[in-house]
Amino acid sequence: MGFVLLSLAAGVFIGWACPLSPRGVRLVQKATLAALFVLLGSMGAQLGANEAVLRSLDTMGLRALVLAGASVAGSVLLVYLFTRLLNRLLPVDFGDGKKGRESG
User: Fold this and answer.
1) Where in the sequence is the domain holding 31, given as residue range(s)?
2) Would 85 be classed as within a structural domain?
3) Do residue 35 and residue 61 come from a single domain?
4) Low-confidence stretches of the chain (pLDDT beneath 70)
5) Domain presence at residue 8
6) What is the chain written as a DSSP string?
7) Cβ(9)–Cβ(16) under 8 Å?
8) Residue 42: what pLDDT?
9) Which pLDDT score, from 0 to 100, does residue 32 have?
10) Are residues 45 and 61 in the same domain?
11) 92 neighbors 99 (Cβ within 8 angstroms)
């Protein structure tokens, strides 16, 4: 966990010290999304390869589906709310007179 927080702090520092152009921001967003899909795919492959998980799938059933769905929905909601809060507290000026999402 410490490595994760250290990596996040390093990323924040790099972003602060070397701000990206609007094109750079878009590229980083696309790279982040691609990395997220790779992570989710690899996690799915690990679960699919785990015979114990596959054997107990019928007993987990609806409860596991609801738990997974609620986790995803809660994560998406919290990221959305946190992003809105950050956009209000820390508007980004891309140098074109527009701030935040208006710049796109």
Assistant:
1) 20-50
2) yes
3) no
4) 93-104
5) no
6) -HHHHHHHHHHHHHHHHSPPPHHHHHHHHHHHHHHHHHHHHHHHHHHHH-HHHHHTHHHHHHHHHHHHHHHHHHHHHHHHHHHHHHHHHSPPB-SSS-BGGGG-
7) no
8) 95
9) 94
10) no
11) yes
Q: What is the pLDDT of residue 103?
A: 47
For residues 48 and 54, the answer to whether their CB atoms sit within 8 Å is: yes
In angstroms, rounded to a whole number, what is the distance separating the alpha carbons of residues 83 and 67? 24
Quote the pTM value.
0.52
What pLDDT is recorded for position 100? Answer: 55
For residue 11, tell me if it sits in a domain: no
Tokens of 45: 């492959």
Residue 35 CA: distances (Å) to CA of 40, 41, 59: 9, 10, 32
Contact 92, 100 (CB under 8 A): yes
Domains contained in the chain, number:
2
How far, CA to CA in Å, does 42 sit from each of 21, 25, 47, 64? 31, 26, 9, 19
Q: What's the pLDDT at 104?
A: 47
In a domain, residue 103? The reply is: no
Shared domain for 69 and 46, answered yes or no, is no
